[in-house]
Amino acid sequence: MLRGVDATSPSANLPRPGGSLHRFANPGRFLRLTDSWLPVLAAAAALVLGWGVVWGLFFAPPDWQQGETVRIMFVHVPMAWLAMGGYLGLAVLSLMSLIWRHPLADLTARELSPIGAAVTALCLVTGSLWGRPMWGTWWVWDARLTSVLVLFFLWLGHAALVRAFDDPERGARMGAILALVGVVNLPIVKFSVDWWNTLHQPASLTRIDAPGMHVDILYPLLVCAVGFSLAFAALVLAATRAAVMERRVRALQMAAARRAEASA
């Protein structure tokens, strides 16, 4: 069963910390809301991502230094952003679980971590494909690549830890603690190219005074980033919906089994 106050009980209307967040804690309300949100989100993701990928792969010009190889960036960079942004979201869900005991936070975090691990794996794979022609090697143990690899293991560790206990709440607590401890790796990933001498190129988009990327490449990259972000959100919502429905079905089956035992 999902944790939280029964929506039919008198205490459900009492004010409490994080009360506005608990509006979405009821599984039935969550399913009703996402039933209308999810198709719109999925359609928007398909349209924006299709536009960005076609623009980036077929119409954006090649880079004057990297040539056609630069097109890997239209997948690699959004995957890197989602790997870090998704983990920050995992940390927020962990705080909601530990502090406010939000009923859906544990479930969403549980479904988020495999998706986050897959995104981070794509970031590493596309980075290797990009690095081979640029650096002459598939992998180097520099600060950026190593810290992203650590992030990948943090995602995998969370996914494994929340499923390692017979008691789901205990697994969720252990996973939340791991997620919060792993947040210290995020600034290392972000600023590693500034703190250490690495082969990885420094940030290009945050240099507002002197952008390091031509707009013909920048604009399709941003469209791809929005498209992949929408697709990421749609996948997480769909996985969470499936998990909520699975738990409701399991709870109904257990209740039916108890009634059958009582009537026997």
Would you spell out the secondary-structure blueprint of this structure?
Blueprint: H1 27-59, H2 73-100, H3 105-135, H4 143-161, H5 168-182, H6 185-195, H7 215-263
Helix pairs in contact: 1-7, 2-3, 2-4, 2-5, 2-7, 3-4, 3-5, 3-7, 4-5, 4-6
Structure description:
This protein has 264 residues and is mainly alpha-helical. It has one domain (48-201, 215-257): Four Helix Bundle (Hemerythrin (Met), subunit A), CATH 1.20.120. Helix content is 70%, strand content 0%. It has 7 helices and no strands. It has helices at residues 27-59, 73-100, 105-135, 143-161, 168-182, 185-195, 215-263. The radius of gyration is 22 Å and the shape is globular. The model is unreliable at 1-19 (pLDDT under 50).
Counting DSSP E segments of at least 2 residues, the number of strands comes to: 0
* Rg, nearest Å: 22 Å
Largest sheet: none
Mean pLDDT: 83
State the domain count.
Answer: 1
Principal-axes shape call: globular
Give the fraction of residues assigned to helices. Answer: over 70%
Regarding CATH, which class? Mainly Alpha
What's the architecture in CATH terms? Up-down Bundle
Indicate the CATH topology: Four Helix Bundle (Hemerythrin (Met), subunit A)
H-E order: HHHHHHH
Distance between the termini: 25 Å
Total helical elements: 7
Structural class: mainly alpha
Strand content: under 5%
